[in-house]
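debug: dumping io for the single-chain case to check the tokenizer round-trip. Nothing else runs in this session.
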Amino acid sequence: MKFDQFFTLRALEALEVFEGSSSKLTDHILETDGNDEFKQGFKTVCAPISQPLFDDLDAFCGLIGVSKRRFIELAICESLDRAKSLAAETGLFDELERQAQKQAAAKESRNADA
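debug: decoded output
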């Protein structure tokens, strides 16, 4: 193992102590009966996926020792961050704001005429 790999591994292991234990506790609580008040803060995201994709997910999560719930949660967060960034870069949010302003102005104009 090279120097950078070694210290990257150690840094990630240290982070796992904080993030991983919390994630494992969350998984445990969500999988056990009771704790309904805690569970109310969570929603289930279901989507049918192909068997090969599921098998790949299951195998990879087992390989790296992470729950499928945590992996999917991280993947969704990363995907949303990237999608929002791309939406901002393409001007989507600016266009949505312009459209909202146009609609507000049109509504205000109709109310003034009435």
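debug: round-trip ok. The chain has a mean pLDDT of 88.
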